[in-house]
Amino acid sequence: MKASVAIQCLPVTENDEELIRVVDEVIGYIKSTGLNYYVGPFETTIEGEDYDQLMDIVKECQHVAIRAGAPKVSAYIKVVYEPDGEILTIDRKVTKHHQER
């Protein structure tokens, strides 16, 4: 992997149920990209080979939230990019910490 992006999408909504619905729409879009992703309680991390593709996904997340009915959306983003190497993958960072349920 060459790049990783963590995005926390925070739509303005009338209540928690609506917040979850809009965020679920955004996560559904991220799933549809076919890239490796990890949904956490505060943000979703996406990784891929193409930095520009990841930045386009970040941009589209905002559009998805607005189309889902949010009048306003804020996003907090973290990016790791190493064009000539390999980043630490999601699996390498967190798999050992997952609990069996």
What report would you give on this structure?
The termini are far apart. With 101 residues, the chain is of the alpha+beta class. The radius of gyration is 14 Å and the shape is globular. The mean pLDDT is 96. A 4-stranded antiparallel sheet has the order 2-3-1-4. It has one domain: Alpha-Beta Plaits (2-Layer Sandwich). α1 runs antiparallel to α2. Helices cover 39% and strands 27% of the residues. The protein has 3 helices and 4 strands.
Characteristics:
about 100 residues; four-stranded antiparallel sheet; 3 helices
Percent strand equals 25-35%
CATH architecture level-2 label: 2-Layer Sandwich
**Residues in helices, as a percent range:** 25-40%
| Whole-number count of domains | 1
By secondary-structure content and strand pairing, the structural class works out as alpha+beta
Spatial strand order of the main sheet = 2-3-1-4
Element-level helix/strand string: EHEEHEH
Distance between the termini: 29 Å
Average pLDDT confidence is 96
Q: Radius of gyration from the CA trace?
A: 14 Å
Quick one: overall form? globular
Query: Total number of helical segments?
Result: 3
Q: Biggest sheet: strands, sense, closure?
A: 4 strands, antiparallel
Indicate the low-confidence ranges by residue numbers: none
Number of strands: 4
CATH topology: Alpha-Beta Plaits
